[in-house]
Amino acid sequence: MRYVRYLCIAIFAIALIAVALANRSMVSLKLLPTEVSGWFALNPEIQVPLFLVILGSIIAGLLVGFVWEWIREYGQRAEAARQAREMRRLEREVARLKGEKYQDQDEVLALLDQAS
Length: 116
Hints:
75% helix; two-stranded antiparallel ribbon; elongated; mainly alpha; 2 strands
């Protein structure tokens, strides 16, 4: 199974390298539209290789997806935490009730009864 994972990673890496090599030409990346940049007397434009734009977009999309999913699953995580707290409370109550049950008995008999 480990080798299959390594094979998938290698194929993905080769594909990324092929995309990077095929898209090395420089492109002009504007950070603001021309109309808006005139308001601020800025012209934020940089020259970057096209593969950086492509890979940066993929990474930004993944990050947005991860954050979106983390926010979406908040209710499920909160419910799981509530159930875990309830389970710990019930376990403590069961231990307390068992202690009360064996309070007046001999210690050896109480241990034998608890083991069965």
